[in-house]
Hints:
Elements: H1 11-31, H2 43-48, H3 52-80, H4 85-107, H5 111-130
Helix pairs in contact: 1-3, 1-4, 3-4, 3-5, 4-5
Amino acid sequence: xxxxxxxxxxxxxxxxxxxxxxxxxxxxxxxxxxxxxxxxxxxxxxxxxxxxxxxxxxxxxxxxxxxxxxxxxxxxxxxxxxxxxxxxxxxxxxxxxxxxxxxxxxxxxxxxxxxxxxxxxxxxxxxxxxxxxx
Length: 134
């Protein structure tokens, strides 16, 4: 008799979803109270005219998009290599939290703290990649 295998999302996979949504959060921060329906005709032109915290939110969005492929790859590779699920889930959640703090530091114009958090997230992502290494 064939048994039915039901796949489930691990915490690490849910973290991939959260990371995929984080750039949208950055855009919403930038557009809050300023973006008009008419701006949708030229959203990149609107973005290029932003300054201060709005410009930093958009820069955080770009950097978050840049971090996404490595994170997704690291999580998938770790799963494929049979990484310990608990450690993988903790590291993935830590990565997401660090990236949320990164956005907060970016928007708040705290460049030294932002860079430290960025580096911490990079180290965690590398750790995720190697959790399944034997």
